[in-house]
Design goal:
278 residues; alpha/beta; Rossmann fold; GMP Synthetase, Chain A, domain 3; 2 domains; 4-stranded parallel beta sheet; 3-stranded mixed beta sheet; 11 helices; 7 strands; 13% strand
Length: 278
């Protein structure tokens, strides 16, 4: 463990050297643990930079507030840009390449902005963990020559959390918060009404005291994913009824609990099954 910590710290030094060699950068900033650490590292490197966040209905409202607070707390140059992802028919179809179309739109806009503002490169916060799951957005990154300094430095999500904590970043233990479209089953069109539906359902569960969670929309069914520690709470009949009633009032007809618990990217299983059959 100590050796791993020293190794990741050494890679962080290499990261700063690599950032300085870039000269200047525009940084894709979602407010998550990875992009927050990347922005902090770019700031520490001393190169000119601009953090940019894309505004989209797929972004949870609480993440938007987090971004605003972080920009103020970290004292970073920042800009919001409007995303037109919801106007992209290929994205709205919600195929297995959904993230490719979303990231293509984002990186196209950021690359154009970087060129106009005179920044040498566009950076994103991908880590080595992103190599271990289905990530069609990585294709878009290569297409637009976006650089991933954390990945290039060999840093994992665990490394980033540890280094963030050492630097006093509030995001060091922030749960992953992917875009709302990741809650919609592949094949169901991504429409604003569905995005608001799952966001409202998740917010209601948080107000009941649940922490890390997902509400997956599968047709008219809300499939709730909770951590193993919180699943036993729903053994309480009164709370279970309250959860079901609240989510039905939100707009779902059926409410079910996923007995396997929370797992990021679980909807990607259908892709693995399809691939094995082809």
């Amino acid at each position: 463990m100590i050796g791993d910590q020293l190794d990741s710290s050494g890679r962080c030094g290499s990261l700063l050297d690599a950032l300085r060699a870039l000269g200047s950068a525009l940084v894709a900033f979602s407010g998550g643990v990875d992009s927050a650490f990347l922005v902090a590292a770019v700031k520490e490197s001393g190169i000119p930079y601009l953090a940019v966040t894309a505004l989209s209905p797929t972004m949870p409202a609480h993440d938007l507030e987090d971004v605003k607070n972080m920009v103020q707390d970290m004292g970073i140059p920042h800009r919001f840009v409007e995303s037109d992802t919801m106007d992209d028919a290929d994205f709205v179809k919600n195929t297995k390449d959904r993230c490719f179309f979303c990231k293509s739109s984002l990186f196209k806009d950021l690359t154009t902005l970087a060129q106009r503002e005179g920044f040498a490169v566009v950076l994103d916060g991908s880590t080595t963990d992103d190599l271990n799951d289905y990530r069609p957005g990585m294709r878009a990154k290569h297409q637009f020559e976006v650089i991933s300094p954390l990945l290039d430095a060999g840093l994992s999500k665990e490394d980033v959390r540890r280094l963030s904590r050492e630097r006093g970043l509030k995001t060091w233990n922030k749960p992953a918060s992917p875009c709302l479209s990741s809650r919609i089953s592949y094949g169901e069109p991504i429409v604003i009404e569905s995005l608001r539906l799952v966001e409202s359902a998740e917010n209601k569960l948080r107000r009941m005291g649940f922490g890390t969670l997902r509400v997956r929309k599968q047709g008219e069914t809300a499939r709730i994913e909770l951590t193993d520690a919180e699943i036993p709470r729903l053994l309480d009949a009164a709370l279970r009824k309250r959860v079901a009633d609240e989510l039905r009032q939100t707009g779902f007809k059926y409410v079910v609990l996923d007995l396997e618990g929370f797992q990021s990217g679980k909807l990607n299983r259908v892709i693995s099954v399809q691939a094995s059959r082809s």
